[in-house]
């Protein structure tokens, strides 16, 4: 039976959340429940239709798969029990694997995962540095300098990464999307390490300064 189907549809049906895509009867409950629909090109209902019709390029290069916020509304309300949220996550992985990623949301999703895989939790200065290095968005990067410094100075963002002891377990679980070419990845890692070192020096100076102020206060 599946040999008569489009190869992309067959491939999607082997993914997590994809086995029931042919059950979709286009009721539209998913799109009507989706809080991110206004930022999408198609929405989950039409994505299901496109998958059923084997439209690989349109599905995997769609910004929609990156604009999904994984709220599970569509999945919990689908009358056919299709695991849409899970499937969208798998489609993101497939899009990276097949080289369809050329969208800034997709780039952001990847640097988010790379940063998470490094530390086990988010470290915003590294996240943004990686993102701007990847997209070469100099204007965007300069625009973040003032708000970033304000957040750092008010303690809203940490100067140094707060690693968890189980970061390796996240990497072992496959949260390690190394999609950059080798020289570029190494260059980005080097620049990020330099940025973390500079922030670490600022943090040490800040701690020294606040310690001296406390000493002066206590006489
Ligand atoms: S809610 Fe389910 S059946 Fe209805 S359109 Fe969405 S995926 Fe298809
Ligand atoms: S999980 Fe994604 S696609 Fe589904 S309703 Fe939430 S944002 Fe929309």
Q: Main attributes?
A:
2 domains; 12 helices; Fumarate Reductase Iron-sulfur Protein, Chain B, domain 2; 219 residues; mainly alpha; binds iron/sulfur cluster; single chain
What's the topology here?
Blueprint: H1 7-13, H2 29-33, H3 44-52, H4 56-60, H5 64-67, H6 73-77, H7 84-97, H8 104-119, H9 124-135, H10 138-153, H11 167-172, H12 182-217
Helix pairs in contact: 8-9, 9-10, 9-12
Residues 24-30, 44-45, 48, 78-80, 82, 84 line the site of one iron/sulfur cluster.
Task: Explain this structure.
- The chain is mainly α and 219 residues long.
- The chain folds into 2 domains: 2-97, Fumarate Reductase Iron-sulfur Protein, Chain B, domain 2, CATH 1.10.1060; 106-217, no CATH class.
- Helix content is 62%, strand content 0%.
- It contains 12 helices and no strands.
- Helix 9 (124-135) packs antiparallel against helix 10 and helix 9 packs antiparallel against helix 12 (182-217).
- The longest helix has 36 residues, at 182-217.
- The model has no long low-confidence stretch (mean pLDDT 82).
- It binds iron/sulfur cluster (2 copies).
- One iron/sulfur cluster is lined by residues 33-36, 44, 68-74, 84-85, 88.
């Amino acid at each position: 039976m599946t040999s008569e189907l489009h190869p992309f549809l067959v491939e999607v049906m082997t993914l997590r959340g994809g086995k029931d895509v042919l059950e979709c009867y286009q009721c539209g409950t998913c799109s009507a429940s989706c809080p991110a629909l206004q930022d999408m090109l198609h929405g989950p209902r039409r994505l299901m239709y496109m998958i059923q019709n084997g439209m690989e390029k349109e599905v995997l290069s769609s910004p929609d798969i990156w604009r999904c916020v994984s709220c599970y509304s569509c999945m919990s309300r689908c009358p056919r029990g299709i695991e849409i949220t899970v499937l969208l996550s798998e489609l993101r992985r497939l899009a990276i694997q097949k080289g369809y990623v050329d969208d800034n949301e997709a780039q952001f999703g990847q640097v988010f995962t790379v940063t998470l895989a490094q530390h086990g939790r988010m470290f915003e200065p590294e996240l943004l540095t990686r993102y701007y290095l990847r997209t070469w968005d100099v204007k965007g990067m300069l625009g973040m300098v003032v708000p970033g410094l304000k957040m750092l100075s008010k303690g809203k963002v940490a100067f140094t990464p707060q690693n968890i002891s189980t970061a390796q377990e996240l990497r072992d679980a496959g949260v390690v999307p190394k999609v950059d070419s080798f020289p570029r990845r190494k260059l980005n890692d080097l620049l990020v390490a330099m940025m973390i070192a500079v922030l670490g020096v600022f943090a040490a100076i800040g701690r020294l300064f606040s310690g001296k102020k406390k000493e002066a206060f206590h006489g």
